[in-house]
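Retro notes (design track)

What went well: tokenization of the new backbones is finally stable.
What didn't: we kept losing track of which sequence belonged to which structure.
Fix going forward: every design gets posted as structure first, then sequence, in one message. First example under the new rule, 287 residues:
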């Protein structure tokens, strides 16, 4: 059993050890394998193939296992390192501690949005983008979006509204699902219902490398998704009788059959079922 801490509570030494472990994974090539994996399983609901990671009920369990695999990789470098979480409802400005020069570095510069500060700046020589979907070699950020289309980080009230939904997910089990905790947190905008929210809006607020399927190119991805994982835990505690849905395979005539993952459907690439990832209390806790 180990703990995942709020990033704002990390000591200087803990930050240094985490950054060091991430950079070692990058040097070994293992980090880029994680980026490639996310790209491979970022399947949209406009595609006809299975989509375990996004726009789907298995958004939470798939990313829980993904974070666990990354955390295990970090711990092969430094056994005492864990993935911290970033509460973007509180640490919601470019001046927040995670963007400091001794941790993740700050915003990208004007023009090409290249990150110039911190250990993941291309100029430092330790972080080049190899597995991305652009031709950029450097990490990019564009805090707050374009001036013509500004983006704000989600508020505590917006998260609370999602946490109050007593249903995990609902048909049609995709990006246009209007009710249910999963899509309220994943945050796909639905015309006439709501705009882009929560998880998705954080990706948009950071922008740059965090804006697409290769978003783990930016190490803040892991802190962001650790908080999303924590929110799932909080929802489970708030609704102890609620269950993962769909809890059984879909009917043969359902257009989502074979494309989404019910409670006991093994998810690629690990062949692990959502039912096996509902409870993390034997592995880690949030503090």
């Amino acid at each position: 059993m180990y703990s995942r801490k709020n990033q704002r509570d990390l000591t200087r030494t803990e930050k240094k050890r985490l950054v060091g472990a991430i950079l070692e994974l990058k040097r070994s090539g293992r980090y880029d394998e994680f980026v490639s994996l996310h790209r491979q399983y970022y399947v949209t609901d406009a595609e006809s193939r299975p989509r375990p990671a996004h726009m789907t009920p298995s958004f939470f369990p798939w990313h829980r296992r993904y974070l666990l695999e990354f955390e295990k990789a970090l711990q092969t470098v430094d056994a005492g390192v864990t993935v911290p979480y970033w509460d973007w409802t509180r640490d919601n400005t470019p001046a927040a501690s995670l963007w400091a020069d001794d941790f993740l570095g700050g915003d990208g510069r004007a023009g090409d949005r290249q990150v110039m500060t911190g250990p993941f700046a291309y100029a430092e020589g330790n972080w080049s983008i190899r597995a991305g979907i652009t031709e950029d070699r450097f990490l990019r950020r564009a805090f707050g979006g374009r001036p013509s289309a500004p983006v704000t980080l989600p508020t505590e009230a917006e998260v609370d509204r999602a946490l109050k939904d007593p249903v995990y997910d609902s048909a049609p089990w995709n990006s246009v699902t209007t009710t249910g905790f999963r899509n309220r947190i994943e945050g796909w905008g639905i015309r006439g219902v709501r705009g882009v929210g929560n998880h998705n809006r954080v990706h948009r607020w950071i922008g740059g490398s965090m804006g697409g399927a290769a978003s783990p190119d930016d190490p803040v991805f892991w802190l962001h998704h650790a908080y999303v994982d924590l929110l799932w835990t909080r929802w489970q505690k708030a609704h102890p009788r609620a269950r993962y849905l769909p809890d059984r395979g879909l009917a043969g005539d359902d257009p989502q059959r074979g494309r989404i993952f019910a409670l006991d459907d093994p998810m690629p690439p690990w062949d692990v079922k959502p039912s096996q990832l509902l409870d993390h209390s034997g592995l880690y806790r949030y503090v």
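Added context from the reviewer: The helical segments are 12-28, 30-41, 59-77, 156-164, 181-186, 198-206, 220-238.
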